[in-house]
Write a structure and sequence with these properties.
Layout (H helix, E strand, L loop, with lengths): L2 H31 L7 H19 L2 H23 L6 H20 L13 E2 L7 H6 L1 E2 L1 H19 L1 H11 L1 H6 L4 H25 L13 H11 L4 H23 L6 H5 L1 H13 L18
Antiparallel strand pairs: 1-2
Helix pairs in contact: 1-6, 1-9, 1-10, 1-11, 2-3, 2-4, 2-9, 3-4, 3-9, 6-7, 6-11, 10-11, 10-13
Length: about 300
């Protein structure tokens, strides 16, 4: 297919590889809108991937695996929320601790499931118009991508058009003002972190039950941490998280797409594209001289 093969590969990779970025970034967006940062989402992603694969293998149903991934993420989110609610507990340190804890649990409990084959999520075929098997395979869409797209618009509406969403924004912008209005800051943040972590767990289910469709200890490749930069790049806007995740997913697919058409020069350099993109986002958006548009006012504060 030549150059068209690279285009198709990058576009399909943007969707397949961008789905975990989308779900984790939406979860982090919800968490940060409440004024807290969750750097432990890498551990949540791994625990979600392991739980989904293990439960799908045991039950024979990938959808049970997706539910298990959401529950695993929610449990880790609850632990994280309770931890940072304690006095003088730093968000960053707690997030790193939860990253190590979640990853360790995933690696420990996931050892027996590295070799067995679990049932995979059914793909939504969008390549029926072509007779080329490679195009048909490339254009199979994960149902979790459709779920993620819907969640992006649901969260957009939630923040702008619902009372609970406005309470989350109020807590994230000014906890003192939210308390004066009678809003429970700890409770609001607890539910924001738990639901955000559940979304991150579902992102892990995509990794192990659709693409790449296996459970290994290196399956996440740092996507949980990169999602934090993605949220900053998206200016804490759920719909912008959708477009940013497709950009990150497409960058991830450049190397394999070039290799598929016989271009192997600079393969490892192209594979590093998502990490370079993350560094560039942090370099051009982080400044001590200005406040980023859309950033919650209490983000990173100890209140």
């Amino acid at each position: 297919m030549g150059g068209w093969g690279v285009v198709v590969g990058v576009l399909s990779g943007a969707v397949r590889g961008g789905t975990p970025f989308l779900l984790v970034s939406l979860g982090e967006c919800l968490t940060e809108k409440s004024g807290k940062i969750n750097l432990g989402l890498e551990g949540v992603l791994l625990m979600g991937a392991m739980s989904a694969y293990a439960c799908a293998y045991k039950t024979g149903s990938p959808w049970v695996g997706v539910v298990a991934a959401a529950l695993a993420g929610a449990i880790l989110g609850a632990i994280h929320a309770l931890l940072i609610s304690r006095p003088r507990v730093n968000d960053i340190a707690a997030g790193i601790a939860m990253l190590i804890f979640g990853s360790g649990c995933a690696f420990y409990f996931g050892k027996p499931f590295i070799q067995p084959s679990a049932p995979q999520l059914p793909g939504i075929p969008l390549g029926g118009w072509s007779d080329v098997p490679q195009i048909q395979a490339a254009l199979k869409i994960s149902p979790l991508f459709i779920f993620g797209v819907a969640m992006a618009f649901v969260l957009q509406w939630f923040f702008r058009g619902t009372r609970w969403g406005m309470q989350v924004r109020a807590v994230g912008d000014s906890p003192a003002a939210a308390r004066a209005l009678g809003i429970s800051v700890p409770r609001t943040r607890f539910f924001a972190i738990v639901l955000g972590s559940a979304l991150g767990g579902i992102g892990g289910a995509h990794l192990s039950l659709f693409y790449p469709g296996a459970w290994t200890e290196a399956i996440s490749s740092g996507q949980g941490l990169m999602a934090v930069a993605l949220v900053i790049f998206a200016r804490w806007n759920p719909v912008h998280c959708l477009w940013a995740s497709l950009l990150f997913g497409g960058a991830q697919a450049v190397g394999p797409s070039l290799q598929a058409v016989g271009i192997s020069t600079g393969y490892y350099l192209w594979n590093a594209s998502p990490y370079v993109l993350t560094l560039l986002v942090m370099l051009f958006t982080c400044s001590t001289k200005r406040t980023l548009a859309g950033a919650p006012g209490a983000l990173g504060a100890s209140s």
